[in-house]
Amino acid sequence: MELLTGTGLWPVAIFTVIFILLVDLMHRRQRWSSRYPPGPMPWPVLDNLLQVDLDNLPYSLYKMAWKPVVVINGLEAMQEVLVTHGEDTADHPPVPIFEYLHVKPRCQGVVLASYGPEWRQQRRFSVSTLHNFGLGKKSQEEWVTKEAGHFCDAFTAHAGWSINTDTMLDKAVCNVIASVIFARRFEYEDPYLIRMLKVLEETRTEFSGFIPEVLNMFPILLRIPGLADKVFQGQKSFMAILDNLLTENRMTWDPSQPPRNLTDAFLAEIEKAKGNPESSFNDENLCVMVGDLFIAGVRPEENTGVHPAPHPSEGRVQQEMDEVMGQVQYPEMADQARMPYTNAVIHEVQRFAHIAPFNLPRITSGDTEVQNFLIPKGTNFIPNQLSMLKDETVWEKPLCFHPEHFLDAQGLFVKHEAFMPFSAGRRACLGEPLARMELFLFFTCLLQRFSFSLPNGQPRPSDHGIFAVLLAPSPYQICAVRRDQGH
Ligand code: HEM
């Protein structure tokens, strides 16, 4: 009784506070070194949480709860960390919700796989398979061009009306990935495709936000029966849809024939790996890999928004296209070299949209020296892409949309080292060639046929996106007018 009242309570309270402060101090011991990178003053227990701007997460360097996080800023530091020290910086920190969902030994896919032999095996497989299908009879360029044609047809059906382009773009980029993985496409009205995109959309917010953060901080909650299934309903439904598609593919697979798609190539690897318990080629990992490629391949494209918002650069792009290919012939990748202005606009869209502002969080697997600072082994870090894409020492007008950033005085296209939207080093985007092709062919195909304007009374698209691991554009309406008909 004495403990709960009066004088007996004070010693317990003081002891508890001292205990918490000591544990907190132990958590920060890494930061005591004089060579630890500098940062904002943390509070006991709360750390830097009070400095986080919840209304503008991407611009506020985030998630600094209990573990120290080093933020890598600027081109030189970024190259040093991701490329020079690539071997010690290629891992992702363990994330309890992902471990719960699927990331288990020999079944980690590629995007979230730990940096090691399994990741290497799956990365090598995906890179070479994507490359091989690009060189096959029905090359990737043909698939993407065909899909761009369907995308334009969908616009034609809505010409002159106010359109929310997001759903059409989702369908088009989803079909490009489906062509690589299953060698098939879905009609835009197909309920299966509509359902798949609906659940994919649901997964968007399942991995970031308050509830996933709480589950990551207190993974024991994942053991509450039914809770995690409810939180990750979209993810579970999405994997079930992929499983059905994989089953259909398996039923028509003929091992004696050359692979028709990435799934066939994976099934052949599973056959070869039979009896090898160390191999990551197995049925469960096939589903995880395919899920990884869908999510990593569809989301960034739809977020980049290859459909153009109305902008004065539109007329100049169309003039360049008319000179190079006219208004009838379909654009080809080979045209890109002769279209410096169009190329500059597409690069500027990527720079300005900065859809992966922090890449994915990483962890050091060895002590890492960067710019004379020491990042100890086991430190979480965030490669801050924004620090390069909006760097005022690199870009003339970093906060404006300004295609001239990628042109020299003669109007020729110029590259910038600070432009690395696909990241760099060992975990750089493996879909970059396909992504570049989609950006160019979709963008040119649309602008060759349509001009864009804002529907009456609609506001200009916002420059601020919606952040959920990636940055998505805020929804907006647009009006497409056929160039040959002027309506
Ligand atoms: C505009 C389009 C795209 C952008 C801006 C983009 C950006 C990125 C970035 C920044 C990363 C690195 C994340 C990190 O540092 O950990 C990444 C990784 C990845 N991307 Fe992309 N991506 C795009 C399109 C694609 C496409 C079309 C595919 C699929 C074919 C794809 C597949 C992947 C995969 C599998 C990884 C993980 C690589 C690994 O961990 O080894 N991406 N992407």
TrEMBL record:
EC number(s) from the headed UniProt entry: 1.14.14.-
Localization terms from the record: Endoplasmic reticulum membrane; Microsome membrane
PROSITE patterns named in the record: CYTOCHROME_P450
Major location (coarse): endoplasmic reticulum
Spans traversing the lipid bilayer: 6-26
InterPro entries, per the entry: Cyt_P450, Cyt_P450_CS, Cyt_P450_E_grp-I, Cyt_P450_E_grp-I_CYP2D-like, Cyt_P450_sf, Cytochrome_P450_fam2
Cited Gene3D superfamilies: Cytochrome P450 (1.10.630.10)
Topology with respect to the bilayer: Peripheral membrane protein
Catalyzed reactions: an organic molecule + reduced [NADPH--hemoprotein reductase] + O2 = an alcohol + oxidized [NADPH--hemoprotein reductase] + H2O + H(+)
Coiled-coil features, chain-numbered ranges: none
Necessary cofactors: heme
Keyword Transcription regulation recorded: no
SUPFAM superfamilies on file: Cytochrome P450
Keywords, comma-separated and alphabetical: Endoplasmic reticulum, Heme, Iron, Membrane, Metal-binding, Microsome, Monooxygenase, Oxidoreductase, Transmembrane, Transmembrane helix
Sequence similarity: Belongs to the cytochrome P450 family.
Function (record text): Cytochromes P450 are a group of heme-thiolate monooxygenases. In liver microsomes, this enzyme is involved in an NADPH-dependent electron transport pathway. It oxidizes a variety of structurally unrelated compounds, including steroids, fatty acids, and xenobiotics.
Name of this chain's protein: Cytochrome P450
Organism, as annotated: Apodemus speciosus
